[in-house]
Amino acid sequence: MTTAHTPEPILQVHQLTKTFAGFQALNGVDFSVNEGEVVVVIGPSGSGKSTLVRCVHQLETIDGGSVYLDGELLGYEHHRSGVRPLTPRAVAAQRRRIGMVFQQFNLFPHWTILENVTRPHRMSHGVGAAEAEQRARLLLKQVGLEHKADAHPRELSGGQQQRVAIARALAPAPRIMLFDEPTSALDPELVDEVLAVLRDVARSGVTMVVVTHEMEFARQMGDRVVFMDAGRVVEQGTAEQIFNHPKSDRLKAFLSRFRAQGARPEEAAPAAPDATAPVPTEPTAADRMQAAPARPGRRSA
Prior knowledge:
Structural class: alpha/beta
Protein name: Amino acid ABC transporter ATP-binding protein
InterPro entries: AAA+_ATPase, ABC_ATPase_HisP-typ, ABC_transporter-like_ATP-bd, ABC_transporter-like_CS, MetN_ABC_transporter-like, P-loop_NTPase
Family: Belongs to the ABC transporter superfamily.
Helix content: 25-40%
Distance between the termini: 39 Å
Keywords: ATP-binding, Nucleotide-binding, Transport
Domain ABC transporter: 11-255
Number of strands: 12
């Protein structure tokens, strides 16, 4: 009898911890993502959602635990009986395999929309001009902005700028895409256009981790939903399990406030803000070389 082989997850996080000035942002987080999966991370403000994805992308130095991408330890390498930090060049190479979209768009104002997608791709990945432009125009069409290729960011709405940021992050065809509350900085009337793009990206088979306050998006698009609170993963499961059959009292309370008030849970129950700050969406090559390594330790709508 042949046993079916279960592939290893693309992303594996083991016992991740992170502290900011005495505040325990992450406290022993275990987390994994399979290829082609859309994992949506929800929870109150200050629960560690943004810190989690920033640590995966090595934008924050972790205090303990480990992160693996395709079985490769991120930020460190095994050496003799322990581990040692990777060189900045090696860290930059790892980060190029992960795409990330932040709360703020951080487009370069003096570049056209087309240049905002092509130039980071060329500088960070060594892609030729013609190939980068072809890829950029295809992605701008996918996010509905091919007609804005020659415009500048100041000529676009916030929702349109975030759609450009999504195209920019997708340009190198990363192994996994991380979205850190991509609609939180938008006016309410602009949120739907960005969520529509995220749905399209999810249906295309891209592996995604989405930190969001948008509960309907989580319910409709999450292959798996992860609920975090106080730096821990409290509960995870399918959208059906999380939203219709929650097990923990904490998740039940979180969802009940959302349902009772018809608002985002974070608006119904304010909490301490995340101890993180937005950074430029696409760092320059020099920025990447200075990145500090981390310490190891779909469905349709």
